[in-house]
Amino acid sequence: DEVWVATGTYVTTNTANRNIYFNMINGVAIYGSFAGTETTLSQRNFSCGFTSVLSAEINLPGIADNSYHVINNSSLNNTAILDGFTITGANANFDLLGNDNRSLGGGMLNNAASGGICSPTIRNCLFTNNTALFGGGIFNHGQNGGNANPSITNCIFSFNTATGGGGGIDNFGYNGNASPVITNCIFYGNTAADRAGAMYCWGGGNGNASPTILNAVFVNNSSVDGGGIV
Length: 230
Hints:
It contains no helices and 22 strands. By secondary structure, the protein is mainly β.
């Protein structure tokens, strides 16, 4: 199945509940940035950018009370597709230790921890102005036997922030696997207070965090330890 989404801003909820988010589904391709007059996918035009906006900006202005996640995924394979969206405004700040998933992956959490699989297909998306303790833009969670290996193509990660590590993306493969394939992507202006402004890869405990990165640009990312990649 396909879902076509018109230009506009779509918030996670019309309530003040920060725990509500969007999620992807296997076998469903979600396409954004349509003017509304198209009859074929090829007619979609990105000349104005990714104009379907998935936003965590709820309740009062400012990020303090925004949704923890814009998108929170689990149990996905590559038939779950997101294509043509801006993902913005998340504030995954539930705790200061990362013991709760609500501190991981503001823009998108791909949660495969404890033996799961979460490897969706992400194309033509802008992750911007998202905040988390780890993984401001995306957190790929492959801890303890999980496999979080999304395919990320033609995407931009800009001005995302981690108060811990991985401003743009955090690949957490501790005793598991978190190794996305990242193609034709730009990482610009992402920051981390502790480590890895653009991308943090951690595969401790005999785990694996070995992303494949093709034709990507890392520019003006910053952190105390490792502005680009750790």
